[in-house]
Amino acid sequence: MTLEENVLKVALEQGVIENEFNWKLVRxxxxxxxxSKEVMWVEWNEDNSFKARYDEPAVSRSLIMSPLNKFFTxxxxxxxxxxxxxxxxxxxxxxxxxxxxxxxxxx
Length: 107
Description:
The protein has one domain (about 20-105). Helices cover about 10% and strands about 45% of the residues. It contains one helix and nine strands; from the N terminus they run H-E-E-E-E-E-E-E-E-E. Strand 3 (about 40-45) and strand 4 form a beta hairpin.
């Protein structure tokens, strides 16, 4: 096994990077795409410290894409408006962007 293959194997095992994707996020203004295995929605205190974690989106929550540790791939500013929501899709505005999030696979 090469050094690169070994590093990749360790990174996958430790959850630093992912090789399975269940969610796809697209930022409307520039088409930036991110994919992740899991997502979570986070609520913040007034001092911007962590308040609570949720499985569902809502106004005032931020989206965080996995891996759900210090190596997360993306975090949005908090939701200001939900424009459309279905079981496998949500379109929402944040403080500075509009996003679309699709569920690619059923868990």
